[in-house]
Amino acid sequence: MSRLAQTHGLTDVQREILSTVRDFVDKEIIPGATELEHRDEYPQDIVDGLKELGLFGLMIPEEYGGLGESLLTYALCVEEIARGWMSVSGIINTHFIVAYMLKQHGTQEQKDHFLPRMAAGDIRGAFSMSEPALGSDVSAISSKAVKDGEEYVLNGQKMWLTNGGTSSLVAVLVKSDEGHPDGTAPHKSMTTFLVEKEPGFGEVRPGLTIPGKIDKMGYKGVDTTELIMDGLRIPADRVLGGVTGRGFYQMMDGVEVGRVNVAARGCGVAQRAFELGVQYAQQRHTFGKQIAQHQAIQFKLAEMATKVEAAHAMMVNAARKKDSGERNDLEAGMAKYLASEYCKEVVEDAFRIHGGYGFSKEYEIERLYREAPMLLIGEGTAEIQKMIIGRRLLEEYRFQG
Q1: How does DSSP assign 310-327, residue by residue?
Q2: Considering only CA atoms, which of 265, 169, 165, 174 is closest in space to residue 224?
Q3: CA-CA to 356 of 20 to 30 Å: which in 170, 208, 259, 305?
Q4: What is the dihedral of CA 254, 45, 217, 128, to 10 degrees?
Q5: Cα(243)–Cα(224) distance, integer angstroms
Q6: Under a CB-based contact definition with an 8 Å cutoff, are residues 27 and 46 in contact?
Q7: In whole angstroms, what is the distance from residue 4 CA to residue 33 CA?
Q8: Is residue 36 classed as helix, strand or coil in its secondary structure?
Q9: Residue 216, Cα to own-chain centre: how many angstroms?
Q10: Of residues 69, 341, 366, 379, which has the active-site annotation?
Q11: How many CB atoms sit inside 10 A of residue 88's CB?
Q12: Per residue in 174-199, is it b (16+ CB within 10 Å) or e — as a string?
């Protein structure tokens, strides 16, 4: 076990879960991750192994067949999985966000219907907020739902769905005018729909098409897609929570815990980059000695390790804050911002330590170098995080003059 990124105060159960996950990562993920990533191949065997471990139901309550664990336990597991291959943690993340939204906001019928099968991994979740012209401005959503009897008809195009092809349940955010007349604030006229579909690509149910995978620089293996709705009919009982107009708040709650997840992924990738850098520095020799003995390399290793430790501490703090029932948007924003930025820096330093070999696809650091940038934009860019942090700080430190 590494000296870095240790978490104090864990229960015996948490330590046992993390030990099991770390062992799985070392034996089942790391050895084949780079080869699978280069082929952009979905890691079905790895996913089946995670399903066997019960990780798809890690935070789902025991009454629905899950393990009923905390956000902290989940985040620490994600950290370990991302250390092995970040794409695998992405497969888990979107499923987790949808399960969390159902647990927090779903009707009893929706919980009973979906959560047991999600806990077993038989239903895989994805969530869809972004659109081609949207970026960070969620209020600009143009996809729309119109009430038609006991159903809603959905039309529009969504973008950047992780697990878009492999999922069988998608939480989709659209505008809904029913009960929300013109002039209603945009965030009060949005609704989340629970859309069931067949896994795969093409027309996966009448009115719903999932085009092929988007070809990406990194974050391969996991499928990232568009979602096109053209007269998609959804029963009224598939409105998340049973009431329209609450979608924005439901999604933001999901994204908030998702930011802790992205912070955990940043911590995991940074840890792996540090491991690769410190190992290579002791194997490579220049001027008659290990490059690890050169002061310039030792300075890099010191900075890398300090960033790994700091990011881990902030991620753990954000998760514990949420578990305590307190508002954690400030802590989650800080953790996501710092962990993603530090991850990029630690990966780049490990890349530099490898020298020319870091540019070779034979070395694992080449894959990490392409994966780290995704964390800078996932679940909100650095600029969005700083806006959230700044606004919350002004609330906490309001001048009373």
Answers
A1: HHHHHHHHHHHHHHTTS-
A2: 165
A3: 305
A4: -30
A5: 29
A6: no
A7: 23
A8: helix
A9: 17
A10: 379
A11: 24
A12: bbbbeebeeeeeebebbbbbbbbbee
Strand ranges for 10-49 from DSSP E? none
Handedness of CA 359, 363, 365, 370 (dihedral sign): positive
Residue 81 in tokens: 């999985």
Q: Name residue, tokens 């697990």.
A: 163
Concatenating the DSSP letter of every residue in 56-122 gives GGTTS-GGGTS----HHHHHHHHHHHHHH-HHHHHHHHHHHHHHHHHHHH--HHHHHHHHHHHHTTS
Longest CA–CA span in the chain (Å) reads 80
Q: Residue for token digits 């991620």?
A: 315
For residue 171, list its beta bridge partners: 127, 194
In total, the chain counts a number of residues equal to: 401
What's the DSSP call for residue 378? T
pLDDT in tens, 131-188: 998 777 787 899 999 999 999 999 999 999 999 999 999 999 999 877 666 666 777 8
* Identity of the residue numbered 254: G
Q: Is 52 a catalytic residue?
A: no
The DSSP H or E segment spanning 235 is: strand 224-235
Cα distances from 308 to residues 262, 312, 332, in angstroms, run 14, 6, 17
Report residue 68 as tokens.
């009923």
Strands 190-196 and 144-148, by their bridges, are unpaired
CB 165 within 8 A of CB 199: yes
pTM (whole model) above 0.85: yes
